[in-house]
Amino acid sequence: xxxxSLLALLERGDVPxxxxxxxADHVLLDSAMLDQFxxxxxxxxxxxxxxxxxxxxxxxxxxxxxxxxxxxxWWSGANIFWFGSDRARSIIALWQEVEQDRKKxxxxxxxxxxxxxxxxxxxLLTLRGGIARIGRRFGLTARLVAMEKAEACIDADKPDDVxxxxxxxxxxx
Length: 173
Prior knowledge:
173 residues, 5 strands
């Protein structure tokens, strides 16, 4: 998985920070998305890009994603990550433990402790606040980057995703 690969890379000891990481199936990633992400992630030990459901569905109403529900909306991962310092290593190790459950939101949230799980289940937490709280728990600055472009959370995981991506690319000319 991503976390295991990243930890193996960090073990080499010659990787400079910050690290910007994305996945190979993020074919719609563009410079505007990267600009937004790097500007908002700057200064954080760790940052994660996500798209709120209303942003995606306003543009692509038939798109299906895995959603995490918080007080401030339903969120889907955008497969863009920022590791601003070696201090992020502890979060990466935890990520490695829950990576196989990435499609089961409650399992991911429960890895960050009972307060995070209860706060999420009862919709007491916003995603932004929850990420910041988790960062503080690990002694680092963690930040959500709420992506403005719907395409930021569309990757080529499933055949339906590939059809949508092909349609988007064709429409761009």
